[in-house]
Amino acid sequence: MRPPRRTSKDSFKDFVLDQLSSMPDLSGRVLFGGYGLYHRDRFFGIIHKSRLFFKTHALTQPLYRSRGMQPFRPGARHTLARYYEVPLDILEDRRDLETWARHAAVPPSAQLLLPFTDVQADSLNYGDLSAMAGAERTSFF
Q1: CA triple 111-116-122, angle to 5 deg
Q2: Distance (Å, whole) CA 45 – CA 42
Q3: Strand 42-48 and strand 51-55: pairing?
Q4: pLDDT-based confidence at 125, cuts 50/70/90?
Q5: Eight-class DSSP state of 20
Q6: Residue-wise pLDDT tens digits, 35-84
Q7: Count of CA atoms in the C-beta half-sphere (13 A) of 77
Q8: How far from 10 is each of 34, 51, 133, 140, CA to CA, in Å?
Q9: What is the per-residue DSSP string for 61-85?
Q10: What DSSP character marks residue 104?
Q11: What's the whole-number mean pLDDT along residues 99-117?
């Protein structure tokens, strides 16, 4: 019996999972023609047609929009407005992608000054998550 043939869709999913491999309690499930990403039991990401989408909220959505990213559209008549495509430069940088994934996986009220950074509250710029990617981190997962 031959092993199942790998597709480019599988390769992209494997790439994303490898980029996020340092996140504890990360899991995934096949989901409406794509693949759902979960932190523990919280759904926060979608891999669909070789594109990655993260859940956004009031603090993160403006950053996605300012970079020209679009919401997830699984079909011509459906849009999931809270899930936005992750920019390519973020996708390619493991540390930045992990930072963005953490913002998607943990609701803003649970982040309370983003415990994985040492940035002071008065200097936080919620519009630029990538600026925080280089800050010293401790895990909160």
Answers
A1: 70
A2: 9
A3: antiparallel
A4: very low
A5: T
A6: 999 999 899 999 999 999 999 998 899 999 999 999 888 777 888 888 99
A7: 0
A8: 10, 12, 27, 29
A9: HHHHHHTT--EEEEETTEEEEEEEE
A10: H
A11: 72
State the Cα–Cα distance between residues 128 and 68, nearest whole angstrom: 14
- Both tokens assigned to 2: 């031959």
Token duo for residue 89: 């430069």
Question: Do residues 45 and 53 lie in contact, with contact meaning Cβ atoms separated by under 8 Å?
Answer: yes
DSSP 8-state assignment for residue 114: -
Enumerate domains of the chain plus CATH numbers: 8-133 (3.30.1460.30)
- Measured at the CA of 62, the angle between CA 114 and CA 27, to 5 degrees, comes to 55
Q: Residues, the chain, total?
A: 141
Q: Are 46 and 52 in contact (CB under 8 A)?
A: yes
DSSP 125: -
Residue 87: how many CB atoms within 10 A of its CB? 19
Contact 12, 50 (CB under 8 A): yes
27, 36 Cβ separation under 8 angstroms: no
